[in-house]
Each structure stands twice: as structure tokens, then as C-alpha cells.
Amino acid sequence: MRENSMAKSRTTPFDGPEWNPDIVSELASSELNGRVGSQLVSETERVRVWHLELAPGQRIGFHRHVNDYFWTVLGSGRAMSRHSDGRVIITDYKPGDTRHYRFGPSEFMLHDLENIGDTPLQFVTVEHLGGANVPLRI
């Protein structure tokens, strides 16, 4: 997985072309969106398992991660992610790329994901419940 930050030296966090007024408005209204995938496929008292599928040009809107989790990508592709702190990150994926995240009390990540490549993107995401934060309602 190769990650390139597009958030160079900007005067404000949301002034780049990736941050149109509709995107900024959606960010503000999605503070507590706990739907971190396209489809919740399994949930127990310990985990939530999500599938995320994005066709070229498709995006999943802003969502908030508060639980420790990991994702694995199933195929090659390229995506852009806008983060609530203003960062914009472009990532190239290859099959099997996996990333793990941990969150302490009150920590979170709020971002979107847009397929900017020419192949479908497919992820499996597993959230670990019972950690430092109360899981968000979905």
C-alpha cells in the first residue's frame, strides 16, 4: 500500500478542490455516523464485520471510527480519503493490504473514502467492540 498526502501547505484545512461546500456540509452532519462499511454482515458482542464495495467514482460518506479495527483490501485500486482535520490522502492498494487502528478513550477518526481508480474496491473491515469507547449506533 502506498499512501501520498495531498494536504500540502494550505491556509485553511478545507480550502483545496477536494473540499467543495457539499462535502464540508456532509462532514459537519456526519459526526456520529457509525456505518463504516456498505453492509454489516455479522455482529456479536465482540465484533462487527463489514463489507465495503465501491465502484469507480463511488464514495462512502463521512463516518466515524471509535472502535479498534482493521481492514483488508481484496483487490487492487486507488482511493482518496478526506479527514476531519483537513488532510486528504490518496492511497494505492494491492490485494491483501491490511491496516490496524487503535483508539484510546475519546479518540476517533472521521473520514470518507472515494474510489478514484478504474477498478472496483472491496474491503473487509472488522471492528473490535468492548474497547476504550462505547460503540456508535448504526
In words, what does this structure look like?
The protein is mostly beta strands. It has one domain: Jelly Rolls (Sandwich). Helix content is 7%, strand content 43%. The strands form 2 sheets. It has a 5-stranded antiparallel sheet, with no helix packed on it. Strands 2-3-10-5-8 form a 5-stranded antiparallel sheet, with no helix packed on it. A hairpin with a 3-residue loop joins strand 2 and strand 3. The relative contact order is 0.30.
What can be said about this structure in brief?
This protein is mostly beta strands. The chain has a single domain, classed as Jelly Rolls.
Poorly predicted parts = 5-11
DSSP strand content: 35-45%
**How is the main sheet built?**
5 strands, antiparallel
Q: Which CATH class? A: Mainly Beta
The level of helicity is under 10%
Number of beta strands: 10
Q: How would you spell out the order of helices and strands?
A: EHEEEEEEEEE
User: What is the overall number of helices?
Assistant: 1
The total domain count is 1
Give the N-to-C terminal Cα separation.
Answer: 29 Å
- The CATH homologous superfamily is named Jelly Rolls
Q: Based on helices, strands and strand pairing, what is the structural class?
A: mainly beta
Shape: globular
The residue-averaged pLDDT reads 92
For the biggest β-sheet, the strand order reads: 1-7-6-9-4
CATH architecture annotation name: Sandwich
Please compute the radius of gyration using only Cα atoms.
15 Å
State the CATH topology: Jelly Rolls
